[in-house]
Amino acid sequence: MTHHQPRKKTPDAARPPDASEVVGLLLAAGGGRRLGGRPKALLTHRGRPLVEHAVGVLRAAGCARIHVVLGAESATVRARAELAGCVLVDNPDWAEGMGSSLRAGLDSLTGTGAGAALVSLVDQPGIGPEAVARVFAAHRSTGSLVAAAYDGVRGHPVLFGADHWPGIAATATGDRGARAYLRAHGDTITLVECGDVARPYDIDTEADLVHLE
């Protein structure tokens, strides 16, 4: 009788590329400096932490895999928010700004075989599944660059094909995130109008808290 060796499973780190897979990347590390130091991920929206709401939006838009970048009070966020099924990425350098969180998130996706990252921000609850799904649907390849637009002005969410990750990571500093990279590649970005289905406000200050439900 021949004994077959069990086939080793391919670890995630060496997953073969799937150009069609879009992974949600939620940036939720901010400390809410202008909110009196309340981490944005923990603000309450519809009875749950804002980070939980934002994950739900990415799921509803079609992202089967979601990576969440945490920073400020990450242990408390893990304890309070229901984030089962998500890959949680700690960004020890979160205080440097959104750029460091974007770098940490893209780094966590490298080698997973994903074809694109659909990047959303935790503090934009006015952007729901309809807008995110439109950006998702515009994905074509690992060379895709897609952004939501509001009355023609580029905003979030944005989709970065894997070909762009190294260039974005190299230029993402401070609070600029991918802005410099997107400016340099403006002629290759597909803009998807979402102003009819979403409102792109940020929850940055005490006055903005009126947007939470």
TrEMBL record:
<protein>
    <submittedName>
        <fullName>Nucleotidyltransferase family protein</fullName>
    </submittedName>
</protein>
<feature type="domain" description="MobA-like NTP transferase">
    <location>
        <begin position="24"/>
        <end position="186"/>
    </location>
</feature>
<dbReference type="Pfam" id="PF12804">
    <property type="entry name" value="NTP_transf_3"/>
</dbReference>
<dbReference type="InterPro" id="IPR025877">
    <property type="entry name" value="MobA-like_NTP_Trfase"/>
</dbReference>
<dbReference type="InterPro" id="IPR029044">
    <property type="entry name" value="Nucleotide-diphossugar_trans"/>
</dbReference>
